[in-house]
Amino acid sequence: MANPSDEIFHLKGDQLISMPSRSMREGLLGKSLEDALQTFLEKYPQIIPGKQIDPVTDDPPHFVLLRREMPVGGWSLDHLYVDQRGILTLVETKLFQNPESRREVIGQIIEYAANGLELWSGGTIRQKATEFWATQNPSRELDELLQEEFGGETEFEKDEFWRKIEENLSNNRIRLIIAADELRPEVRRMIEYLNKWMQNSEVLGLELKCYGGESESLVLVPLLIGQTQSIIDKKVIGSKKMRWTIQELKSVYSDMSNNILGSRLNKLLDWAVNNNIFKETETENPIFTILGKNKKPLISIYGNGGGYLRTKKEIYLGGKSERNKLVNDLKEINLMDIGFDPELSKDGKELTKKISDLNEGEFEKFLHILRKYCLHD
Questions:
Q1: Which of 145, 293, 305, 328 has CA atoms 20 to 30 A from the CA of 318?
Q2: Distance of CA 231 to the CA centre of its chain
Q3: Three-point CA angle 368, 369, 375, nearest 5°
């Protein structure tokens, strides 16, 4: 049914044509509104308005669907996307008439995000997304789609891109979107509040409305809820890269509420600096790199206690044999999955635990392992 009280206008010559809003319940792409919304978002990721998300940039976010029904705990997220900067976007669709489209949906998508931070690391996202695309289109690999959408004519560094996704996830740099035909005022207020006060993550609403006559093709208008210019400025500034000097890192570590994590990061930093194997990084989040015996980057340590081990055999003085020994040593303290095969990793692998999750004995063994593979006897 058309709604003449909600309309847009098409100027054709000197004629102003009214296009009233129409409900997606009338069969667009699905038997129900929720089915229609989910199918539409799967088929047309570009309907997520990147320019409304970040209007101050010349390169606003654009999206590739990684998976529908992404497993998270005992539930599944409707859609999981990624943008060209490696930031995951979680989208959950709800009906305006559905009572869950009020308060429950806010708690639901935040719960998905919180569990995702724990359950999707260590290559799980890449695995689940690859499995999804293998069933959707066996003739086209996901990495080919990412190359097409994000690489253009330049070579797309696939492994580096997936590493960036893991880094953003570990630092809570994600985007949460609640998509509906219409968002209730109380949901709008909660979205705006959360988006204002969440430091690294974005919480947004997305209304998708249809306009047109009964026999006409439809015009779809996406409207983003939750952004203000002050929020955009704050989060754009916060996302700029900076050079993480020793002083900058120490300042971050000293302000941490997790005393164990701050102390261990400081200990690793001091050890690397004292042994002349510290390397600054220029990244969005506080990271430093520890060099191996041949002064090439070996392992990066994140500000949240995670890490990234480089596995190219060329960076090890002892080649493949030395690399495999290091991986096996890390497996003994559960910093690498027991089934991980470095031969299958082109560039590197995230550590499976944070250094703050190690007991004292395990942390001392980690330091011993670093001495073994970073310092000359």
A1: 305
A2: 19
A3: 85
Looking at per-residue confidence, does 186 or 357 come out higher? 357
Task: Tell whether pTM > 0.70.
Answer: no
Paired tokens of 341 = 């095969």
Phi-psi region of 291 (alpha: psi -120 to 50; beta: other; left: phi over 0): beta
Burial (Cβ within 10 Å: 0-12, 13-18, ≥19) of residue 29: middle
Q: At what angle do helices 158-170 and 103-119 cross, to 10 degrees?
A: 120
Compute the mean pLDDT over every residue in the chain, rounded to the nearest whole number.
85
3-state class of 63 per DSSP?
A: strand
pLDDT single digits (tens) 11-50: 888 899 888 887 665 455 555 667 778 888 899 999 999 9
As a whole number of angstroms, the distance between CA 199 and CA 87 comes to: 15
Question: In the sheet that 307-310 helps form, which strands lie side by side, from edge to edge?
Answer: 278-279, 287-291, 297-302, 307-310, 348-350
| Average pLDDT value for residue range 292-309 | 91
Three-class SS state of 264: helix
Rounded average pLDDT over 97-115: 75
Residue 120: count of CB within 10 angstroms of its CB: 23
